[in-house]
């Protein structure tokens, strides 16, 4: 029988181990033990604490979610004010900021001041107070002087240490950071809220702020929040660091989470380089950022610069172009796609968003229009992130007038006039005139010429529209009987560009079986399926003769895809078209169906630049051996292959404990 003294010792041991494992998992993204081991120790601690409740301490990992729901948030006075940042939207704003710094610090142009560059996390600012190393207070920013006490909620965030690490911490410490919700957690939260008819959040920032301001800490605990710390406020009985870089190192050493993308650079040129690099990486980061922050590194220089009102002169937020903006829906049209699907598109009052002027945004399908209740005349939030097609996020109902008009679902194709159809179980409506609808023809030519298909450079949207509208091209095979004379009959076509297009068309004749299959535009057959089909059959005729059973025997091909493939090759006009394309000279190297399937069941994710081959090539070779190659890392990923400058997929792999291999190991696998 364990004595109370023994139990006390074991509890201390368990708390130490669990805190350490938790730190490795949540802060360092490097799990030390499997989840099951953590859970086992956690249960053991819970068990012992239930036998001896008097041994429970507030810093126990079992006590993160313990407090009863509050009735209101108390006010908290920050020991030092929480500042805000001046924003810069243009390079000129940033150059002015830098010039003012040089003037005040009396620096020569040749001197390069040191800046610390950080991603600007789109979350909600918090102030954490540690007394004698223990988390005793956590508050929102509020007005910068007085915030709200959200300690019980912050305690539920696993990456926030309840006790500082390392022993050498000040008696009192204020730490500043941003609480955020990752894209993954945000999407999960919204998906489950939609399913249960609950409230969804418009973006991760609102989700983080809303989750922190819950009166019941149990709700916060269920929201998977995280934190990045970026500074300190008051520090009592301890040496104050001399630079911002030193602050970050110290904060990290105390077990708090600091963003891994932070960099110290020289001069404003270094800041611009950082802005570009992070901007390029932005869509790959697992969390939302809305810009970058530049801070003078040396505190001696920061002190000289001082503050204006609530913002320091030594720091600046260089914002990315906003990814969401408000605008008005002027109309809702229906666009006909390659496979005849009619997609509702919102025509918008032009608005500058995500770095471009947007005047159209997809509404996906009628179910979505109805779910979001978008009407003509509504004010809407439009989102354009990276190269993703702009979309309508939601309607600002508060601005709806009585003049808005609901969308009328068309009964006829807006391009060819055919009666539209809606198949059972499908959300979409379609134009069934596959052979005669010019919209479908134009889209199938765009698809045929696209990069993943036959890659005909220079055959742009405008030219395709003209070629189809004047009747020079009636199907994709007609591309191969185009001549310079025909192109020159079109408006604004010069000889040189006509020659270039003809050359690109000629070049496209040499392709691969997989690209050809993809180019045909068979419904449900994307690049990966086309690759699988090519690899399996190795020959077009065999594929054309395959029945549903033959197709379903292939990895990842289900009844739906199989049925689309069979139907496609069954239709005479498709077979005629294929004959015409082959007669025009389209050819590919003979493909030997791969029998070596030793990577069957293995899933690879590639990140970073490879040296010996392109990522596309690596993907094809892995797929040829039966492996699956996907874009995102999950628990089901077998290997993450890292090339030069790997992206956030590497971080995710570490977090999930997925095996990480380099290019040399990949080559070994490929060579067996
Ligand atoms: N990354 C980061 N965000 N952020 C916000 N650093 C940072 N620093 C801030 C704020 C308000 O303020 C300090 C410069 C005082």
Question: Bound compounds, please?
Answer: ligand 5U1
- Count every helix, treating DSSP H or I runs of 4 or more residues as helices: 24
Number of structural domains: 5
Largest sheet: 6 strands, antiparallel
Distance between the termini: 56 Å
Radius of gyration: 30 Å
Please tell me what the overall shape is: globular
Output the CATH topology of the largest domain.
D-amino Acid Aminotransferase, Chain A, domain 1
Overall structural class, as computed from helix and strand content, comes to alpha+beta
How big a fraction of the residues is strand?
15-25%
The CATH C-level class name of the largest domain? Alpha Beta
Contiguous runs where pLDDT drops below 50 for at least 5 residues: none
Average pLDDT, to the nearest integer? Answer: 92
CATH superfamily of the largest domain, called what?
DNA ligase/mRNA capping enzyme
- Supply the CATH architecture of the largest domain: 2-Layer Sandwich
> How much helix, percentage-wise, in residues?
25-40%
Number of strands: 23
